[in-house]
Amino acid sequence: MTLFDVVFSGNDAVYGLTEKAIDDAIAANGADKAVAFPDTAYSLPCYYAVTGTKVTNLGELKEALGVVKSLMTREKRLHDAFMSGIATALCAEFIEVLKYMDGAAPYAAPEAGHLPDAAIRELGVPLVTGDIPGVAVILGAAPTAEEGVELVKSYQGQGILVTLVGGIIDQCVEKGLKMGANVRVIPLGKDVTAVIHAVSVAVRAALIFGNIQPGDAAGLMKYTMERVPAFVNAFAPLNDVIVACGAGAIALGFPVITNEETFRVPKSLIVQKDVSKFNATSLEARDIKLKITKIDIPVAFASAFEGEIIRRGDMQVEFDGSRVDCFELVLSKDATEVEDHKIELIGPDIDEMPEGSKQSIAYIVEVAGKSMQSDFESVFERKFHSYLNCVEGMMHTGQRDMIRIRISKETYQAGFRLKHIGEVLYARVKSEFAAVVDKCQVKIITDPAQCTELRHSLAIPMFDKRDERLTTLTDEGVDVYYSCIMCQAFSPSHVCVVTPERLGLCGAVSWLDAKATNELDPQGPCQVITKERVIDERIGEYEDVNEAVKKFSQGALEDVSLYSLIEKPMTSCGCFECICGIEPLSNGVCIANREYAGMTPIGMTFSELASMTGGGVQTPGFMGHGKHFISSKKFMKAEGGVARIVWMPKDLKEQVAERLNATAKELYGIDNFTDMIGDETIAEDPETLLEFLTEKGHPALGMEPMM
Amino acid sequence: MPFTGKSGKFNAAIRTVEIGTGDKAVKLGGENVMPLYSFDAPIENAPKIGVLITDLGMENEVAGIKDYYAGASSFAEIAKKAEEMPGADFVVLRFEGADPNGEDRSIEDCVAIAKEVGDAITAPLVIEGCKNVEKDAELFTKVAEALQGKNVLIMSAREENYKAVAAAAGLAYGQKVGAESAVDINLAKQLNVLIGQLGVDPANVVMNVGSAAAGYGFEYVVSTMDRVKAAALSQGDVQLQMPIITPVADEAWNVKEAMASEADMPEWGSQEERGIDMEIETAAAVLASGSNAVILKHPASVATISKLINELV
Could you list the residue range(s) of the whole structural domain that residue B254 is in? Predict the structure, then answer.
């Protein structure tokens, strides 16, 4: 027998029963006898949703059965199996509604049977908000009552709404499990047809919360598939009727997980022999992500502790990457390689380390997700500093393999151990990056030999690979740029166009950050900007970029160039790390950073320059930018590039020297270019600066006039 | 050559959102011109005025407000008086006392008050919360359920709790949703988009884009409203075409000009007069900037703003 045969035969059996039940009811009561579920405005909710027709009496029910029959086509195609599944479900609804004839109350506590509309509205709100992350429909009897109750409790603990049909109800009663809507465990009924009351919840949710019009069967199935996170756990033995009902569930987008060796349909009919793994298998199959509301550690976690300093005398233990081998690393993995919330410690824990000692540590956070990209690894990793600092009595500095962590004596005495680092990282990564992380596990290694080994074999090559990616990431090499309008609250018409070689002017939003922000928050401040219709390659002007800038500035800005200081320069909000401005005498530009309080050869201080550069207006000749942009090959490329830089404060020059010199060497073959650039110790006025530049043979002096 | 004025009406328009039921239902929005520019094209629905009452009663109010409500002791009586205030279009019930850091009034008590008020009046009702996002989410869900069929406006769904509030008010119980953001056009738009993604019909959404008393960072409010209306009308941005409602009383009566006692500031004159002035100035300014409704509490302010609207539209 094939799966089709089973579904069709189950469907036929239920249809036969339904037809007989309706005929018997008509024979006994006449066709005009009213039938209805109590407390619903949706008639027979499933039939009404699928067909748009309300059934009020037995005669109409008989007609409806004719419609159901028309769904029962018998080609061996997936569509036929699904429709037969739906037909089976509708038959179940007809059988159930007959039980309610004459205002009967066919179900007695704890069984609920049909749920009133008010209950759906009440459950619907937490379903929409994700406070109820999923709906489990458990069908049949578990191998043992213990296993059944364990499964129910596991879902309950996750906030998942559990509905019970069949033998599992008696098992829960036997074990004294508290049941009811208030504890989110709802026994529906012992007949298999009672499963329709669970389907009815999903269907009415679509009608009420999804604005699905009755009769729009395709819209209904799309809504239940995308928005109702339900799944079925069906215990062995399965008969044809259950399989046929299962086909109906699958048609609505609800996967069926069973412990019976039966046909398998990828992502839809899943065999899991181990009942204790039903929970994990179901959540993965239905793609249910649990909200993490609490971090399981013995001390407080709050941003109030972020700046906390742990002095040597107060510390229980220190991990110091500058002395011994340490590192922190995020790796993206395949879903099969990651077991969610697994936290593993390899090596001694804090209680086995001498008080005040310096130790090795490496923690590797492995994540998997359908939308995860390896480009996000470093974005997550950079947040670790803030996560770990938020732990009371924990101090974290540095990044990559240059981290230093101190844990205070009080925190240690409160019971804090190394697995709690894993708990913090797990909880924060899962909640903050829920859009892309489906599963996350943490490995913490304190064994010094392994730390050394892994640092050199795994971490450093990985960091090198990322640096390599960053340096090879060019504006030409990517298909899209990103907007950033985070600052529009106070600079309403400013739009940053973030490209691989030009980070946001605040210095905090690189192209990778913007990309991750867009992925995590698709409606957020970073939106995709295409760059297909070039207007002028030299200054970096594109039609699509202009359109985007116009849209995001609400029409305040018409056009912008990416690489020019003079022609349509990019605007500034006011958060710029640096400002560069034309210095006419030397035919170059001066750059001042925010920290520099003194005078520049332009005759203005940073604050004076800022007052004419910010506010989202284009000021040709002046531009705000990030520190990293100074060494970019795209820095005022249209005007000749970094060779135009004639002056910057000494501190800033030191910060950017290495990368700037490399760029100058590559672009112009100049060695130690920064030695040719003036600073406040050399000149604060244009005349003295010019003398210095002439003496050094600065390239800007020989370039074409900028204006 | 005679001067021929060019009409500044737009092809796009602000959506019309109706709150309340029956004869006294009010329509917000619908205009296709800049705020109050009735000379460019007729403004079908003049800006509306809501009268604020709170679950804390009259104890902390100024004399003029106490006098107006004199004799009204139950919430039903107070609401009735509010509805009858000359110039009032709707009543706003604010659950200030629900705040867990304040009186922490229980949800059940709040629902009972909401029902009492809802049953007492025929004018449309607007519900404001206590600004605690968790408590508000629960409160709004229950109040929206209790007031089914009354087409009330539930203020506010915020970024932190919009899912619960909008799902309950806008989907489950058929009420109107107030989308509240903090003086930022992008946040306002983002919230509208998110509420739309939940499945709430944009025609059931009203915006509160944030407020401040005149003089207290007020230029941000003006600029935000200006830009929202400009984007909605001149750029036809459908995600910003929801009408705007602005709670003025909460802000205006909570600044030092309205709160400093006459003993502390004898040279400033009557405290109550100052509060009324702040309320009127702020309301007039947000109406000029694009608000389709304002929420006020002093009878003198309501009368003045009502007169202003009648003269201009």
Answer: 17-27+36-312
